[in-house]
Design goal:
This protein is of the alpha+beta class and 423 residues long. The chain has 3 domains: 15-142, Nucleotidyltransferase, domain 5; 151-281, Helix Hairpins; 290-422, no CATH class. Helix content is 59%, strand content 10%. The protein has a 6-stranded mixed β-sheet with strand order 3-2-1-4-5-6. Helix 3 links the parallel strand 4 (75-80) and strand 5 (100-103). It is globular, with a radius of gyration of 29 Å. The protein starts with a helix and ends with a helix.
Length: 423
């Protein structure tokens, strides 16, 4: 089956009937602005500013009901931009009261802001009207009701990203500290964040302190923390290098305090990362089709959790190409007359979903025999560039995952390969 986006676009336009009140809301942190039009785009009523609380939402409800009664309209569709996290509360509140809430692409709002007045001016009232016009013209997508497990994955993956960012920052600062205070430590330990190097930094933070010790004292300190220490040779080398270190000998107390805090931040980030990843594994066990997807050689827990957390329930997609469009991995072409431009990725979708699909595809190309064969065929036989082949395989992965989620079937290697390769 071929996925045709134009058929869906027609359905979105036909869904807005003459009985619809189309409301556009410009989302902000504290005060939202709403405008309303009918199915032809004629402005109805005045703009409404309402606060981001229960009283403000009730005033929006009364405003909508008043406009429906005045213009004899029986249905309402509310459109808004998914701006940060500010839209979540009002969208949930409206959805709980049986309003149809749809989302518009912020990039598209910016492109359409000159349609009515042919000026680049921008205001909250104008943006709300642009959003209402876009919904009327069918440029919207439905707000998906994400099951709790998938929402938990999205929150956990977002938390993991922030923890990893802090962990990388702590590692980089530890490397900087070593380069300034004790650069010779790299001659003893190949990796500064290995157990032996970190224990040495905790027990003997400066070369001045280390140079006053004997190798036996260093080994005794290592034994107090490590079951297997680095050995007498490295202990002797440490003491020798510390005695002639070229590191900074000023502001010793400040450097020691800084290192202590950096090591504490590193330990905290490592502990939090372990807890978050354990929670991710526990949540994946509650999703029925996740186990069969993890059975695919090359699919990791984090990459699958990232895909499911950003995309939600994959069985809700009619085709793998719909998942690609959701991620912004669909192709876009720019051509005019005899000139044909280069095909590029649209990047009009979830950036984190693109990242996890790409990571998962790279892992499959490195570890999965079927994907390795397809990549080799694309590069050697079809003469594709390697990155183009990877992008093509991202589409293959999306179709496999959506197909498995919709059918409930396990991964079948023979069905993965194209006919010319399977033969």
């Amino acid at each position: 089956m071929k996925f045709k986006s134009q058929a869906r676009q027609n359905q979105l336009i036909e869904k807005i009937t003459s009985s619809h009140l189309v409301v556009g809301i410009d989302i902000a942190q504290q005060t939202h602005v709403a405008r309303a039009v009918n199915f032809r785009g004629i402005i109805i009523g005045e703009a409404l500013s309402f606060t981001n609380d229960e009283d403000g939402f009730n005033s929006l409800l009364q405003w909508i009901q008043k406009l429906q009664t005045a213009h004899q309209l029986s249905a309402t569709v509310v459109g808004m931009e998914p701006t940060g996290h500010y839209w979540l509360n009002v969208s949930r509140w409206l959805a709980a009261r049986q309003f149809e809430v749809v989302l518009v692409n912020p990039h598209l709002v910016k492109k359409n802001k000159e349609n009515r007045d042919n000026t680049p001016s921008k205001s909250d009232k104008k943006d709300a009207l642009v959003i209402a016009d876009m919904v009327k013209n069918g440029y919207y997508s439905f707000r998906r009701n994400t099951p709790e497990a998938f929402e938990e994955l999205r929150v956990l993956l977002s938390n993991r990203d922030s923890v990893v960012k802090r962990l990388v920052s702590a590692k980089n600062q530890i490397h900087r500290w070593v380069d300034i205070v004790f650069p010779e430590l790299r001659q003893v330990f190949k990796h500064i964040t290995c157990i032996g190097a970190l224990v040495t930094l905790r027990l003997f933070p400066t070369p001045a302190e280390l140079s006053q010790l004997q190798p036996q004292d260093v080994i005794k300190g290592w034994k107090s923390i490590m079951k297997r220490h680095s050995g007498s040779r490295k202990a002797q080398e440490l003491v020798t290098l510390a005695s002639r270190s070229v590191g900074s000998r000023q502001a010793t107390h400040a450097y020691q305090l800084h290192l202590k805090q950096l090591l504490a931040e590193y330990d905290l980030a490592c502990e939090q990362l372990q807890v978050v990843e354990q929670e991710i594994v526990a949540v994946l066990e509650r999703i029925p089709f996740a186990k069969s997807m993890l059975a695919i050689k090359g699919i990791s827990v984090i990459s699958l959790a990232g895909i499911l957390g950003e995309a939600g329930d994959l069985s809700g997609f009619v085709h793998g190409n719909a998942l690609l469009r959701h991620a912004g991995l669909n192709l876009a072409e720019s051509s005019s007359g005899k000139w044909t431009g280069q095909m590029v990725i649209s990047k009009r979708g979830r950036s984190r979903l693109r990242r996890f699909l790409y990571i998962a595809t790279m892992c499959l190309v490195m570890n999965n025999p079927e994907f390795q064969a397809m990549h080799k065929y694309n590069v050697n036989v079809k003469k594709m560039k390697k990155m183009k082949s990877i992008m093509k395989l991202c589409g293959k992965l999306a179709r496999i995952l959506v197909g498995m989620a919709r059918s409930g079937q396990a991964y079948t290697p023979l069905k993965t390969l194209p006919l010319e390769q399977a033969a």
